[in-house]
Structure formats: structure tokens, C-alpha cells
Amino acid sequence: MSVTPPFWRQPPPPLNPDFLQQGHQRQAGLTKPAGSLGRLEQLAITLSAQQQRPHPAVDRVRIVVFAADHGVCAEGVSAFPQEVTGQMIANFVNGGAAISVLARHLGAELEVINLGTAHPLLAHDGVVMAEIAPGTANLAAAPAMSSEQLQAALHAGRDAVQRATEAGAELFIGGEMGIGNTTAAAAVACALLDLAPEILAGPGTGLDADGIRHKVAVLHRALQRHSDTVAEADQPLPVLASLGGFEVAALAGAFLAAAQARIPVLVDGFIASVAALAATRLQPGLTDWLHFAHQSAEPGHARVLAALDADPLLRLGMRLGEGSGAATAVPLLRQACALHNQMASFQDAGISKGQ
Fold this sequence. Notes:
Elements: H1 17-29, H2 39-51, E1 61-67, H3 84-94, H4 98-106, E2 109-114, E3 127-129, H5 147-166, E4 171-177, H6 181-193, H7 197-200, H8 209-225, H9 227-230, H10 236-243, H11 246-260, E5 265-267, H12 270-282, E6 290-292, H13 301-307, H14 324-342, H15 346-349
Parallel strand pairs: 1-2, 1-4, 2-3, 4-5, 5-6
């Protein structure tokens, strides 16, 4: 009797070559010099192949914010206290956060998932309660999570995509909230890329130079503590369990599940990109389903994007997280689709085509 492997062991489908070819042919026939719309042309072609339809669209956008706390905050790596995680969860659903404003502006659906906060959070309308634990353990002193907790986080990401699929989502954006999560993301990236913390650690919520130096020291201690795991960086699940966060793992699971469901993914900033890096180490074919929204001001983000061979759409100096950078890039995808779908061809317009 065969056993179905866990979803993260199942590769996503390849892009449909017929729609790729049709997309290129359509772009070649539109009333413009070839290539004159730059990356907007390739965006539309890729979306067409991902969605398997000649007229791609990203009208129905699903934004999911995964929230969780981090035990590494005990090391003093954040400029904000840990209770802010729970307070921001309430702010998301009350409509006051940046991603809440952007979601309303885009007409996007916003889902907020509580994976576990250090300060107990009462059930709140609009929050999916999927608590794994009251945050991760202190990654500088112990594994951040058990293998069972890691699997629960991965499944939380998959479950969010299933709800997005049922809602007819045409584009998936994963956001995150968790005081201390830039430390966890930097630790995972250091392990996967074999880079020093000095290269990847940044200010996060607003650390000064002394705070960043302390953060680097904590990361060095964590990487030394988990040196056996770090030595096997081609195994991203143990790296996530030892050094990651619930929301980082949930994002990785969501990206994989979205690709398996043929839903294009628009990746946000540093933390989401680290999750994408871990997910692509599990399934390299995932890269065909990822669009990268922006390069954040976190210094390590450029290195992570380079490792993913990703060229982001925007460079606005943002570093908020929440999915806000990805939401800001949605109008570009919508404009790419509108141009692809609505421009006249040379033949239809009766215009002579150049050589």
C-alpha cells in the first residue's frame, strides 16, 4: 500500500508551455515595438501560463498575514516589546495597519492567522486561531521548534491556501508579523546561504548600530549552537525547525501549496523571501510560480534575492513586512494584464507592422 508523501514533498506543476507560446505570440502582435513594455510583457505572459488562460487577471487577490512570537526576543534583539505582536493582530483586523489600508485600496481579501503569541490573545472576529505554541523557543539556546511544531506551521500555510483557492484567488500574497522575526529569518538565511550574520543582519524594527552588533552576536551564538544542522543546509526543514519561526515556516508551506494549486505568488520582503528560499530548496520548481515584489531596506534582502535569481519589481526602501511591499506591487501586475488583454493587434487596428 503506497503512502502519500507530505505536501511539501510533492513538486508543483510546470508552467504550461502552450500558454507561454501563445503569450509570446500575442505580445509580438500588439501595437507597439517588440519589448517596448519591458517587464510588463513577461509578467503577463508568465501569469497567463500560471493561470492557464489566454487573458490573465489578478482581480481577486488574497493576502494572508501569519503572526507569531519568537523566544529569541529574550536576547534583546528587537526595539519593540513582544506584546506588540498581539496588538498588531488586533490592528490588522480593525483596519488600522498598513496592510489593512492597502488591502482595502486593492479590493483584496485579508486573512490574519495567529500561530501563537507570548501574551495570550483572546479569540477575535476576523482572526484565524491556529495556535501552535506561545511562540517559538529561544533559538540562541535551543531548537526554535520541534518537528511536530514545524509540520503544524507548514500545514497552517497549506490550509490558508486551501481557503484562498475556495475563494477563487487569482494571486496569493503572504505577509508576516512577529517581534523578533528578522532575527529568525536572518538565522535561516545564514544557514541556507553559508553567510556570516554581519552580512545578513539588519535593523529590523529599528535597532541602532549597537543593537545590530548585539543581534549579530546572538546570531553567531545561535549558528554555533546549531552547527550540526547548519552543516546540512541542503536540508531546509531541520534548518527551519532549529532557527526559524512559525510564520516563516507557514509562509514556506503556503508558497508550496499555492504553486501546487496553480495560484501565482507575489513575494514580499526579507522574511517572505527567506521563506521562499527555504521552500525552493525543498522544491526547486517553485521558482516558476514566484513573482518578487520589491527589494526591502533590510541589508540581507539583496543577498537572498540574488540567491533566488530574483529581480524585484520595486525598490522603494520599504521594510515594514506584513505583505505591504507585495501589495504595493499589485497594480503593476494588474496593468500588465490589462495591456496584454486589451491592446489592439496590428492586424485589428490596421497598422503596418515593422520588420
